[in-house]
Amino acid sequence: MSSCFGTLYKVSTFGESHCAGVGAIVDGVPSRMALTAADIQTQLDRRRPGQNKLGTDRNEADQVQILSGVENGLTLGSPIGLLVANKDQRPGDYSEMNDIPRPSHADYTYRAKYGIHASSGGGRSSARETIGRVAAGAIAEKFLLEVYGIEIVAWVSAVGTVDSAEVDSSILTRAQVDSFDVRCPHGASAQQMSDEILAARQAKDSVGGVISCVCRNVPAGWGEPAFDRLEARLAMAMLSLPASKGFEIGSGFDGARMRGSVHNDPFVLKDGRLGTSSNRSGGVQGGISNGEPLCFRVAFKPPATIGQEQQTVDYQGNPVTLSAKGRHDPCVVPRAIPIVETMTALVLADLALIQKMRS
To answer: Does position 93 have pLDDT exceeding 60, yes or no?
Structure first.
């Protein structure tokens, strides 16, 4: 659907990139949970544009307002309304692109589907739509941490041809990730990635990347086979993000090159519970969490809107030269970190509530 995500923990988002505002309605948040705007703002601050020279020049404070569902700092159990105003819109930057579908952008497909598309900034296909997801997911993160002790940490593991050196995801913190603008917690790799992004920006071009994510302390037993398997829900969530092009969990595609004798995760006793000696399964077996950390990766393509001249055609098929204007990220992955984390939280919170119904 265009706006709704989840079964019990449900999120509906609204708004376009250059309308008056964007936000979400969150239904299914347990009652009597302490919640303030500050709990949500932290992730919005990590996602907002204008943070540093690696991203877009658009400058938005992205301050969230809680419109409903919270009273005296406690959730009521009723739908929570969240709103973030758009204040630095420049729809005029897109006027010359009204009649030209941008290469690899959603302009053409939205028009093919609906017969109309937002004339500025991509509308719902813009990454600005993810503000509602991040706000709703920040609430889910708080619920998961307080009730289950679940920690979700994502980081940039590749930009273009630059791969990060290995990091210890068992102890990695968000503070370590955020200590670098590019959000890769390995210093030497972070510098190379930053150089790659700045080179693309200087060339009026763009570059893609990969985000890795770990979820610690997820209990065994979450996931709903056969069609709502945990990894299937995560894959759907990640591939619903703008610019995402690939998802893999555990050994991923590398596992296809192994033999079973190498790939299998033998069981061992860990602190009085069954665990596995390796984690090539990525914390999921048979579509159900096994108690090991969830480990997955998401690939993002280079942003489609670039400043270089491109030979293309308009909607009538006439050859044109397009040199896109506007303010755009040369690489999405540094700002996509909180988006991946909060979308993960939405999946896990929903599955947690479903599993709770069985007890």
So the answer is: no
